[in-house]
Design a protein that fits this description.
Layout: E1 2-3, H1 12-24, H2 29-48, E2 53-57, H3 61-75, E3 80-84, H4 91-99, E4 104-105, E5 114-118, H5 130-142, E6 145-149, E7 171-175, E8 193-197, E9 207-209, E10 229-233, H6 238-250, E11 255-259, E12 271-273, H7 277-280, E13 285-290, H8 298-308, E14 314-316, H9 319-322, E15 334-335, H10 339-346, H11 353-364, E16 367-370, E17 375-378, E18 384-387, H12 399-412, H13 417-435, H14 441-444, H15 448-453
Helix pairs in contact: 2-3, 3-4, 6-12, 12-13
Length: 456
């Protein structure tokens, strides 16, 4: 089993194309199904600790994988039963069904301590029928260990939507590659632990699961400016910009300026200055944060204009995102919208969160950090990184301001915009993990040095 971190994420169409390439290169469909089913069986056998397994098979190739897995378990001497929703409807699934030499029960089968869901895989577009969905819920909830083959039955593999009442699984065994449902909510929260099984198909792609960044500490010749000078533009709510400035300082920047705020609730190392064009024209500035607590009045618009015209790398968050509508976005900017800000700026375009983030990045020419429990970092060139499991405790006021400051610190320290955004999202999530439950956004920055240290 392979952990998800750093792996490509493939849609159903992309996965089928990869399978087609493998078949064209000489691997037949039966061999692919055999590899998949036997790989599933091996993991179930290891985890079941000898307990009886019930493999629930559907009519398509996912069901065929289940029949192969059940046969492999039986050959290994493992107690196993099979239940099916109906007859196999594809030739390869029918062949796998024919090789299973035991009885096939209906979905009214009695519960088992281990349940393997091989009903429906990628490409499902509608909710399960009531009797099928009810049987899955009953069996999974009664099991001591529940395993989904490829994706849990009842979720949309390409966008992570739930097509009905889907139970939570303990483990999902992704066949060949990660799928969007493994990393996008709400499906990701129902997959349990997700591991990829290698079934001999070459996989690559521009969309990947986040992985820990590889950071380097400052060298012997480093100084405060080489580590990065960040400016944070304050607004009508000074606490928000103070959070960003503090996060930038704790997130790796060598020098942080808070411009246009008289607040003294800051570490003494953060320098407060008047906001004017000269302050933003400093050629040493590696990143400018605009938006946290900015407001949306005339004064805020004036500050927005100063930032957009300063010529320095920008991290644009909060109110500034609403004030971007109708304005050109400087190239290589980093935008950090949550769902409401994303809709205000880019409209209600359809598709998965990954697809929407990529479309927004291409349209704006900026790096887009589409925040949430599943955060998508998208670049105009088609690359994307998905961070699937941000702490739910980040759903509290001010944490987005902290993220903007962390990203700015990484950008000012020399990282390219995409790398800075991806690193910032990872460090933000790791700081939240270290902070524990029910933290204030004010507490997050104090955990950033530990998060950075873990990546050195």
């Amino acid at each position: 089993m392979i952990p998800l971190a750093g792996l490509p994420i493939l849609t159903a169409q992309e996965m089928r194309a990869a399978e087609t390439r493998a078949i064209t290169a000489g691997t037949n469909v039966d061999a692919l199904m055999a590899r998949a089913g036997e790989a599933v069986a091996e993991q179930v056998r290891r985890l079941a600790a000898g307990a009886e397994a019930l493999v629930v098979c559907g009519p398509g190739n996912n069901g065929g994988d289940g029949y192969v897995a059940a046969a492999a378990l039986r050959r290994a001497g493992h107690a196993v039963r099979v239940a099916a929703s109906g007859e196999a409807r594809t030739a390869v699934a029918a062949a796998a069904r024919a090789r299973w030499d035991g009885p096939v029960e209906t979905l009214d089968a009695h519960e088992a301590p281990v349940v393997v869901d091989a009903l429906f895989g990628i490409g499902l577009t509608r909710a399960l029928e009531d009797d099928v969905g009810g049987a899955v819920r009953r069996l999974v909830r009664a099991a001591r260990l529940s395993v989904a083959v490829d994706v849990p039955s009842g979720v949309s593999s390409d966008d992570g939507a739930c097509l009905g009442d889907v139970p939570r699984f303990d483990l999902t065994l992704a066949l060949g590659a990660a799928k969007p449902a493994h990393v996008l909510q709400p499906a990701a929260s129902l997959c349990g632990m997700v591991r990829v099984l290698d079934i001999g198909i070459a996989i690559d792609g521009a969309v990947r699961v986040a992985e820990p960044p590889r950071l380097t500490g400052p060298g012997p010749a480093a100084h405060k400016y080489s580590r990065g000078l960040v400016a944070v533009v304050a607004g009508s709510m000074p606490g928000a910009s103070a959070l960003s400035a503090t996060a930038a300082a704790q997130g790796g920047a060598g020098y942080v300026l808070l411009l246009g705020s008289a607040t003294d609730r800051l570490p003494h190392a953060i320098v407060r200055r008047r906001l004017d064009a000269a302050a933003l024209a400093d050629p040493r500035l590696g990143a400018v944060v605009i938006g946290p607590g900015l407001g949306r009045d005339d004064k805020a618009r004036e500050r927005r204009d100063m930032a957009l015209s300063c010529g320095r790398p920008l991290v644009i968050d909060g109110d500034a995102l609403h004030l971007l509508v109708g304005h050109a976005i400087p190239p290589r900017s980093i935008l950090t919208p949550h769902a409401g800000e994303f809709a205000a700026l880019f409209g209600g375009c359809g598709g998965s969160k990954i697809a929407r983030a990529l479309a927004a990045a291409q349209a704006s020419g900026a790096i887009v950090v589409f925040k949430g429990a599943d955060t998508v970092i998208a670049a105009p060139d088609g690359r994307a990184i998905v961070h699937p499991h941000g702490s739910a405790w980040l759903a509290t006021a001010g944490t987005g301001d902290v993220l903007a400051g962390i990203i700015a610190a990484q950008r000012a320290g020399g990282a390219d915009p995409f790398e800075a955004a991806a690193t910032g999202v990872w460090l933000h999530a790791e700081a939240a993990r270290r902070a524990g439950p029910a933290f204030l956004a004010d507490n997050l920055a104090a955990h950033l040095p530990g998060a950075i240290g873990a990546c050195l």
